Amino acid sequence: MITAVSAPAGPPWIQILLSVVGLLGGTGGITAIATVALQRRKFRADAADVLTDTALTLVDPLKTRVAELEAETQRARRQAAAASREIRELRSAVQEMSDLIRRWQRAIFATDATIERLREYILAGEAGGGPASRIP
Predict the structure, then answer these.
(1) Which residues of the chain form beta strands (DSSP E)?
(2) How confident is the model at residue 96 (pLDDT cuts 50, 70, 90)?
(3) Most CB atoms within 10 A, among 20, 69, 84, 121?
């Protein structure tokens, strides 16, 4: 049996295109491809909207937390300043007491120390002057 050689149906790219159209289900597939291609920008815009909404949802609690942390920082700074002031005052009081103890020790161990002179020295020190200047 002799078969006739059929003439080519057209350029090969048309055959490939027809095969693809057939595989995609004809017009429905082409419509889907066209829709996806045309709505790509809309998909990007929708994605941007979703990201923006999500970011705004997260920003409000973060702003609240930052405000709370700033207030807490201010309180901590005030407390640190008050503690520093109190430490300075305590150091000053300790220094005064140490100086007083050293003066009393020198007065007690002085070669001419007597009970009467020590009483005068202590009373003069409490009064703010007097014979205490005679004792080293």
Answers:
(1) none
(2) very high
(3) 121
